[in-house]
UniProtKB/TrEMBL annotation:
PANTHER family: DIMETHYLADENOSINE TRANSFERASE, DIMETHYLADENOSINE TRANSFERASE-RELATED. This is Probable ribosomal RNA small subunit methyltransferase A. Specifically dimethylates two adjacent adenosines in the loop of a conserved hairpin near the 3'-end of 16S rRNA in the 30S particle. May play a critical role in biogenesis of 30S subunits. Its EC number is 2.1.1.-. The keyword RNA-binding applies. One of its GO terms (molecular function) is rRNA (adenine-N6,N6-)-dimethyltransferase activity. It is an enzyme of class 2 (transferase). GO terms for cellular component: cytoplasm. Keywords: Cytoplasm, Methyltransferase, RNA-binding, rRNA processing, S-adenosyl-L-methionine, Transferase. The keyword S-adenosyl-L-methionine applies.
Length: 299
């Protein structure tokens, strides 16, 4: 592993971000979602959170910044071995940092074990990655999570702690909502570490958390994924109502032409509950009924 922090660590083992910034020839700018991880212990742990047996032969990093995590991912993928076992692709939007990464890891780029894509992770073509480990730009947390989750790959991602708590919440908990159902539809999710603000430079306003997403095969069928997600979104706009009233009141969001027909077809047991008590399989059952009886159209 390249030691890019030589002589720049403080008493806590943290990197000196100014030294990294000088080397990148640009400063981290929080307005560009640039909160760099500077705690080496956290950086070392991130790749180890991949699920047991995960294929690390092609790791994706979203937002490479000054490369502190990229370094670890190259090692985790076995890309530094004399006979490289794997490779890493980094997507970085900011041109100076993308150029810095290419220069800093010139050997890996040259040998084909590292590709740096300069572009917006929300719009560039994603590579055929086997797993993703990233300290995400928080401004696009939701959009990038829902770009990655349908790819059915193991993900280790940092989020604002409050967002992470909502992703992993279970039915009945106060944080449980649309984000929880949509996430858990794709993956088993858990918070594996909380990261204090001091681990970043510049420090973000709030605490962060690392979420591990292990792809799952749901024990229910969803024929129309777009409708399922829209239906979940619709019902949670009326989370204090019963499911019966939520289905009726949100037809303009879910796109149901005949919400009453859905209510007539559904079990009283589901209709009398509140959306926040339904697990993803119950939402799937209701969405199937809604598809069949409610004449959904694009909302
Ligand atoms: C939170 S920093 C993480 C940097 C580095 N990986 C680390 O852990 O220190 C997020 C990085 O994502 C980049 N970024 C922000 N928005 C992006 C986008 N839409 N697509 C790709 N990269 C983005 C920022 O320039 C920044 O380098």
């Amino acid at each position: 592993m390249t030691d890019r922090s030589a002589g720049t660590a403080d008493a806590y083992g943290n990197r000196d971000p100014d030294a990294l910034a000088r080397r990148a020839g640009t400063r981290a700018n929080p307005d560009n979602d640039q909160h760099f991880l500077v705690d080496d212990r956290v950086l070392d742990r991130l790749p180890t959170y991949l699920p047991d047996g995960a294929d690390a032969s092609h790791l994706l990093e979203v937002g490479g910044g000054a490369g502190a995590l990229t370094d670890r991912l190259l090692a985790a993928a076995g890309a530094n071995d004399p006979d490289p076992a794997g490779r890493v692709t980094v997507i970085e939007r900011d041109p100076p940092f993308a150029a810095f990464l290419r220069e800093e890891f010139a050997d890996a780029v040259e040998s084909g074990t590292l590709e740096v894509i300069q572009g917006d992770a929300l719009t560039v073509d994603l590579p055929e990655f086997t797993a993703c480990v990233a300290n995400l730009p928080y401004g696009i947390s939701s959009e990038i999570a829902f770009r990655l989750l349908p790819e059915s790959r193991p993900l280790v991602l940092t989020f604002q702690a409050e967002f992470a708590d909502r992703m992993v919440a279970s039915a009945g908990e106060s944080e449980y909502g649309r984000l929880s159902v949509s996430t858990q539809h794709y993956a088993d999710v858990e918070v594996v570490e909380r990261i204090p603000k001091e681990a970043f430079d510049p420090q973000p306003a709030v605490e962060s958390a690392v979420v591990r997403c292990t792809p799952r095969d749901p024990d229910y069928e969803v024929d129309d994924e777009a409708f399922f997600l829209r239906f979940v979104k619709a019902l949670f706009t009326q989370r204090r109502k019963t499911v019966r009233n939520a289905i009726r009141n949100t037809a303009h969001i879910s796109g149901l032409d005949r919400p009453d027909a859905v209510v007539d077809a559904a079990d009283e047991d589901l209709l009398s509950r509140r959306p926040g008590t339904l697990d993803p399989s119950a939402f799937a059952a209701l969405a199937a009924l809604a598809s069949e009886h409610g004449s959904p159209t694009e909302a």
